[in-house]
Specification:
Strand order of the largest sheet: 1-2-3-5-4
CATH class: Alpha Beta
Number of strands: 5
Shape: globular
CATH architecture: 2-Layer Sandwich
Order of helices and strands: HEEEHEEH
Low-confidence stretches: none
Structural class: alpha+beta
Radius of gyration: 15 Å
CATH superfamily: HIT-like
Number of helices: 3
CATH topology: HIT family, subunit A
Mean pLDDT: 94
Number of domains: 1
Distance between the termini: 16 Å
Largest sheet: 5 strands, antiparallel
Strand content: 15-25%
């Protein structure tokens, strides 16, 4: 089920990391935030409560799988989870690894910058993303998403 005009129905919404039957995981490629991912429910639903109890559990298990992979491979200071959906009313969860050196930390990624990013640290995280994404795919495949 898709909706005309919805960008998450029409496109992947970013660089595709995992593509399952019920959901996909994309790397959002947000400037300055190297480990910004979205878990996107494939069917066009607006709210989390639109899912059945089984699908809600699967969706959250996928969010946890992405979070675990980021924590294990990147050792961030914090993981931010959000399901705002105000700009794109299609169910998706933001899973964002945050670092003490990032330009906005400890404020949200949508707040104003507090400093410049540490470019060397940013490049180090980018170099470790393939391992994090491989770990995500392993766990997501076991969930039969």
């Amino acid at each position: 089920m898709s909706e005309v005009g919805c960008p998450l129905c029409a496109t992947a919404g970013g660089r595709l990391v995992f593509d399952g039957a019920r959901l996909r995981v994309i790397h959002a490629q947000e400037t300055g935030f190297p480990a910004f991912y979205r878990v996107v429910w494939k069917d066009h639903v607006v709210e989390f409560s639109d899912l059945s109890a089984t699908d809600r559990a699967l969706c959250m298990d996928a969010v946890v799988a992405v979070e675990r992979a980021l924590r294990a491979q990147l050792q961030p200071a914090k993981i931010n989870l959000a399901a705002l959906g105000n700009m794109v009313p299609h169910l998706h969860w933001h899973v964002i690894a945050r670092f003490a050196w990032d330009s906005h930390f400890p404020s949200p990624v949508w707040a104003g910058a507090q400093r410049a990013n540490d470019e060397a640290q940013l490049q180090d995280v980018l170099a470790r993303l393939p391992a994090a994404e491989a770990a995500m795919r392993v766990e997501l495949n076991t969930l039969n998403c």
